[in-house]
Amino acid sequence: MLSVLIALSSFTPQESPKAPSAVLEIVPLQHLTALQVPIAPPPWGTLLTAGYEEYAHDLIHCSREGQWFDTDAICEMLSRLHTEDIDNDRLSIHVQEDALRVFGEAQAVQKVTRDVREVGDLLTRPIEVEVTVWQAGDLTDVAAVNTPADYGRMVANLQPLWRSVRSTHSNGVAAHDRQRWVRYVRDVDTEVAQKAKIALPVTDAFCDGGRVVVVPHSLASGDDLVLHVQFGFGVPRGSVRTVPSGLQDAPELDLPTLATTFGAFSGRIQNGGALAVLATGDESCGERLLLTVRATASTPPNDPQLNDLAAFPTSALTNAALLMRMTPPSPYPALGDQTARTMELSDEDQTYTRFEPDELLELLRTSLGELADTDDFSMDIAGGFLFVHAPRTTITIVGDLLRGLESRLLRNVQVRHFGTIDQGRGSAPLHELVAPSLLGRELIVVRLLETSFVRELQAEIAQESSTLEPQLETAQSGTWLRLRAANPSGETHVDMLAQTVHVRALRPRNVNPGGLLMPNDVSSCRCLHDGKAVNGKVIDHGDGPIVTLGDTPLRTTLSTIVKW
């Protein structure tokens, strides 16, 4: 019996193998799935009126809305990457609001959280956008596209009027604002009834300050960035002038004078470089301003090794920014009850430098040939990125194809359009516009001096009562430039429209029995160029409008230079 007890006491039961511990991880996706809030575009057409609906033209698609990435799509992608663990009951991934609920073996869960972190670092790579407005003064010879070193030299001796810094990501939106809207009495309406009449003041507002909206895009090739920019600035010129309406018991009219500069442009820069727009010239045609837009992105994260998954930025090739074509307002006077024709924008047009997402996918699939027909290959575009699930050799080929497209299509041109006043014994600048543009995209730069004036008087008559009603309009003196460049067969073709208008000083004239008119004197010239351009060579447009400074009419000439 004792031997049996000894034998039992010496027996140590073997521990049964422990089952792998299961863990639950909640992985937030807010940085990838947050709703994009629509951003209002800069004021356009005129900054002398707050009729925002009429002038809210979004040329760079900053007012888009919706989710950046869909939570269900992210869950589906991760499930494809971890199919083996899911099929063997080691992992489950489910959507929970704007997060993922990941449950399973610790090692499998850690792989999913690592994948989300590495992909998120790539997609949300921070891009800092700095916008600065400078007083141009007599500044000339500005480069539209600047390396980081060039930018530092250009602004070394300049004082900023306004500087703004925002942070975003590729295909995100950075909005920069500094505005003050000033209300004023723009017009007087009249109501006439039997033996009675009344004057009704109409107020409006003009913009003192500006707004710049920038959409940056990362590239698959190197560390360069593509920027699409839309801007609008208003600078009041002197105090608001008041004139009597000429109507009995009616308020005076306010006639503000505003130097307005607005437009849209694009360009490709080195990381830390800047695009520049110069708008300068004679003060009778606007303000002298230099706008610089500088973008600096953080160091690109390492290419994540996610079970043969890669993400390439493609928004620079697929976005529809700057495709609408502008036609400036007619410089010819509107008489009587005619309505003055305003600036027009065409419907969006296609360009050879832009692909619809489905077109880009089809092009890549066709180029890959049999490599795209395997079971382990998938490709999709979302949020401005191309996601490729394939062997690493295939991913390398896709990257090379994208870099080749970027090299051929995302190329800069630099434009300088200038007018010169012939003063007999010398010359002076009428205007100078310098700006960048990508091939196939529209470039628009407008520099104006604008004010209101009474162009007509309408009669309001009722029984034993009558009055006059002033009809006001906006006078704009300055230059409108629209240009698009293409590069077919190695040569650069330029499609350009430039309109220069010069309005002589408005002199009020009383009209009895109670009324005011402001006859004006408008000189204009519209230039069209639709043909080849030689790199850096002057395109001579001949004579521009007659400009009257003081009481002396002066001859002008217009020219354009395109460099690439």
Mean pLDDT: 88
Counted beta strands: 32
Shape: elongated
* Number of H- or I-type helical stretches: 10
Task: Indicate the radius of gyration in whole angstroms.
Answer: 32 Å
Q: What are the segments in which pLDDT stays under 50 over at least 5 consecutive residues?
A: 1-14
User: Helix coverage percent of residues?
Assistant: 10-25%
For the report, how would you describe the main beta sheet? 10 strands, antiparallel
Structural class designation: alpha+beta
- Beta-strand portion reads over 45%
Distance between the termini: 104 Å
Topology readout:
Layout lengths: L1 H8 L12 E7 L1 H4 L1 E2 L15 H4 L10 E2 L3 H11 L1 H5 L3 E6 L2 E7 H18 L3 E9 L9 E2 L1 H7 L5 E9 L5 E20 L2 E23 L6 E12 L4 E3 L9 E3 L1 E13 L4 E8 L7 E9 L11 E5 L1 H4 L7 E2 L16 E2 L11 H12 L9 E5 L2 E5 L2 H18 L2 E11 L4 E12 L4 E20 L2 E22 L5 E12 L5 E2 L5 E2 L4 E12 L4 E6 L3 E3 L2 E12 L1
Antiparallel strand pairs: 1-5, 2-3, 4-5, 6-8, 6-16, 7-15, 9-10, 10-11, 11-14, 12-13, 14-24, 15-16, 15-23, 17-21, 18-19, 20-21, 22-23, 22-32, 24-25, 25-26, 26-29, 27-28, 30-32, 31-32
